[in-house]
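Give me the fold.
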Amino acid sequence: MGPKFDPVISLDTENFQIPGVQIELDPDEAESLGAFEESALSEDDAWEANIDVTDIKEDNNGF
């Protein structure tokens, strides 16, 4: 493994473009920047997207 470096932590959002710098934000500021935007499927959509395993077994002669 390579050397382990302690992260550089900043409170200034101007430092987002600097590799290796971690920005500390309060929850409201992070949300306003889109950090918590949920893009996952809902549980209902996920269940609806499931395929029917029985159909696959029949299409593959039970295998």
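The radius of gyration is 22 Å.
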